[in-house]
Every structure is written in structure tokens, then in C-alpha cells.
Amino acid sequence: NDISAAGAKALGAGLKWCGKLRELGVSKNPLGKGFAHLLSGLGPGLVMLDASEADIDDAGAAAAASKLRSWPSLRTLRLFGNLLIGPFGCEAVARALLGAPSVKLADLKGANHGGEWVRLKKVLTDGGVDPVRMRVE
């Protein structure tokens, strides 16, 4: 589809009218900075979001993390293969999982966790979240 940042922004505006949307797959599209705008259009019925290999960075991962509580039905968040997600984005998602019991898998495999995975597993465990719910390696 080759949805760019501008297309992601337009898609987010249109998705506001799709209140029953349950799954969205935008993987392998160069969403980049437009990802946060796309997220603003997603409603509470979202069950699965796949934005793998979509040029998402720390800010995009943090934007997704901040929306987790807005999606009480979300089961799967796939952000794998986004090499621009670094330690900040990984930590934002990990901390968001603490307040998002519906999410069974947050897949950030391929993100650059900066060697912080051991610490992030402890954050999850200390918060009562099974670390297998988050994949970074």
C-alpha cells in the first residue's frame, strides 16, 4: 500500500468514523511520524494492531503505549522490525503493559532495547506482569 506519514495522518482522520474496527494491519508501510496521528483515530474496540516494519521510532512506540488504556479490548500489539524503536520506546511499552491487562502480546522484536531487556523484565515482573507478554529478543 505504501502508506506514508501523510497517508497515515489521513487514515487516522478517517478511522474516527469506524467505531467497530477490531483489527488494523499497516505493516511494511513507511508510516514514520504519521503513526501517532493514525493512532488517534482508533477506537476502544481495537483487538489487534499490526504496525510491523513501519519505520516507527521511540515517539511512535510511546504514542502506542499511551493509547493502551484507551483500547481495553486490545490483545495484540505488533511493532516488530521497527529498528528505530530504542530503549525509550521499549520502556514506554513495558510500563504501559502494567496497566493494560488485556494485552497478551506486545511484540517489539528487532527493536534496539539497548541492553535494557533484563531491567525491563524486572519492571514487568515487579508490576505483576508476566514478561512473556512482551517480546523484544
Structure description:
With 137 residues, this protein is of the alpha/beta class. The protein has five helices and five strands; from the N terminus they run H-E-H-E-H-E-H-E-H-E. The chain has a five-stranded parallel β-sheet, with helices on one face. Helix 3 links the parallel strand 2 and strand 3 (76-78). The N and C termini lie far apart (28 Å).
Layout of SSEs?
Blueprint: H1 5-15, E1 23-25, H2 35-40, E2 48-50, H3 58-67, E3 76-78, H4 87-97, E4 105-107, H5 117-126, E5 134-135
Parallel strand pairs: 1-2, 2-3, 3-4, 4-5
Can you count the beta strands? 5
Strand order of the largest sheet: 1-2-3-4-5
**Cα Rg:** 14 Å
Q: What is the string of helix and strand elements?
A: HEHEHEHEHE
Task: Please describe the structure with a list of short key phrases separated by commas or semicolons.
137 residues
Write a concise synopsis of the structure shown.
With 137 residues, the protein is α/β, with parallel strands linked by helices.
